[in-house]
Design goal:
The complex is a heterodimer. By secondary structure, chain A is mainly beta. Chain A is built from 1 helix and 5 strands. Chain A is globular, with a radius of gyration of 12 Å. The C terminus of chain B is likely disordered. By secondary structure, chain B is an alpha/beta fold. The relative contact order of chain B is 0.17. Chain B has 7 helices and 7 strands; from the N terminus they run ααβαβαβαβαβββα. The chains are: A mainly beta, B alpha/beta. Chains A and B meet through strand 3 and strand 5 of A and helix 3 and helix 6 of B.
Chain lengths: ~70, ~210
């Protein structure tokens, strides 16, 4: 399936991939990223149950410390 | 309320722009390197209504980058910042809160603000605030990656979407090995303030839910 992550189109082979698994695949720190899924903020508690589908639009914003 | 400082601002800006800045309320999460300096830039620019949260006290190690002074060490940051900001404009409408922003109160703290500026230290807190305010209809300005020195052109502005801007290089995490220093911290704080200033002057007020 073809999805958009941060403005880039990506082909995914997994047909049953959750947001949680995507985060793990990308080696991201769940406590330091915000995920917007098809225009809505997706809290960490929903990542495991949200399965990625064709044409999904995912934005991942990550943060580093300092300020 | 007009004083000699605001009279000069009015002369710079003209009535319409001055009034836009005068009515906007800005919430600032954190009064450290980003927050204290950003607040100063906002006040100098003519914003009068600020709401600032910080739980910490001024320490000597803050003085390399934060808008505090030697004789303020030991004071609560929000109180020291009130003193310093009032020395720029004595007639601010400033609300300060000597407390943490946490999951229990994060949605309430800036519910009456038009613009929210993230000035936290911890990445986890940046995430918490972004999730609450980045899609709230308010202008949301955050910062990530501003430690060290050199390559300051890498402290850029990324427009995530129409009402969410992220300032920083998103890489330079503050640490013992890469401490934050005044120039880059101030560049990031100034960019946060400039986004607010230009957004208000170019677009005016906004409605939010």
């Amino acid at each position: 399936m073809r999805i958009n992550i941060n403005g880039q189109f990506v082909e995914l082979n997994d047909s049953r991939l959750s947001i949680d698994e995507l985060v793990k695949q990308k080696n991201l720190n769940p406590e330091r990223i915000v995920i917007e899924y098809n225009g809505r903020i997706l809290g960490n508690e929903n990542w495991e149950e949200t399965l990625i589908r064709d044409s999904d639009n995912i934005m991942i914003v990550s943060f580093v410390g300092g300020g | 309320m007009m004083n000699n400082f605001t009279k000069e601002l009015l002369a710079y800006l003209g009535k319409e722009s001055f009034e836009k800045l005068d009515t906007i309320r800005i919430g600032i999460a954190g009064a450290g390197g980003l927050g204290s300096n950003c607040a100063a830039f906002l006040v100098r620019s003519g914003f009068r209504k600020l709401k600032i949260y910080d739980f910490d006290k001024v320490s000597y190690s803050n003085l390399n980058r934060q808008f505090y002074f030697y004789d303020q060490v030991g004071n609560w940051k929000v109180e020291a910042l009130r003193t310093n900001l009032s020395r720029i404009n004595p007639d601010l409408e400033l609300e300060t809160f000597n407390q943490r922003i946490a999951p229990e109160n994060v949605s309430d703290v800036f519910s009456d603000c038009d613009i929210v500026i993230e000035a936290f230290d911890k990445a986890e807190c940046k995430k918490m605030l972004a999730e609450t305010y980045m899609n709230s209809g308010r202008l949301y300005i955050s910062a990530s990656g501003l430690a060290g020195w050199g390559e300051s052109d890498n402290v850029t502005i990324r427009k995530i979407h129409e009402l969410f801007y992220l300032v920083g290089d998103n890489i330079s995490e503050a640490s013992a090995a890469l401490p934050p220093f005044a120039p880059k911290v101030n560049i990031a704080a100034a960019k946060e303030a400039d986004i607010a200033l230009s957004w208000v002057l170019r677009k005016g007020s906004l409605s939010h839910g």
